[in-house]
Write a structure and sequence with these properties.
By secondary structure, this protein is an alpha+beta fold. It has one domain. The chain contains four helices and three strands; from the N terminus they run H-E-E-H-H-E-H. The protein has helices at residues 2-17, 51-71, 79-99, 117-141; strands at residues 26-29, 32-39, 102-107. A three-stranded antiparallel beta sheet has the order 1-2-3. A hairpin with a 2-residue loop joins strand 1 and strand 2. Helix 2 packs antiparallel against helix 3 (79-99) and helix 3 runs antiparallel to helix 4.
Length: 142
């Protein structure tokens, strides 16, 4: 899962960077635009600032996640959210190391900040992780 997320993320960012000029918008689906923007913050533009500090912060969070995964690797499906989160984070870290910022390209209506597939993978991975932990907790309560 990790390799798939990184590969798809990097391929889509490369395609956007080479086909859409900054400030241009292209309609993908009703309500969804493709854009080419740079983000110096973390997922969805939060915490903009020094990309080195953000990279260090994300790296520490990844180490904590990997430690949690190592302690709970025997749980069913634990590899899925871990691969999604780590793959998404690595995709964005690669951008930060190469460009000093992350390419975002999916723009939703109502002022939602542009994001990329790595951000989506991280968000969905966190949701899946919470569901797995919650499911396990409910199973232990029975």
């Amino acid at each position: 899962m990790l390799v798939l997320v990184v590969a798809v993320d990097q391929l889509t960012k490369h395609a956007v960077e080479h086909s859409i000029v900054p400030s241009e918008e292209r309609r993908l689906l009703p309500g969804i635009q493709l854009v080419n923007t740079r983000n110096r913050g973390v997922a969805f533009g939060f915490l903009p600032g020094n990309h080195i500090a953000v990279t260090i912060l994300v790296s520490i969070a990844l180490l904590a996640l990997l430690a949690y995964f190592a302690l709970h690797a025997s749980r069913p499906l634990m590899w899925l959210p871990t691969g999604m989160i780590v793959g998404g984070a690595l995709g964005n870290i690669l951008d930060r190391l190469r460009h000093g910022s992350v390419t975002d390209f999916i723009k939703l209506p109502l002022g939602w900040p542009p994001f990329n597939l790595a951000d989506a993978s991280i968000t969905l991975g966190i949701l899946v992780l919470f569901l797995l932990v919650d499911r396990r907790r409910h199973a232990e309560d029975r």
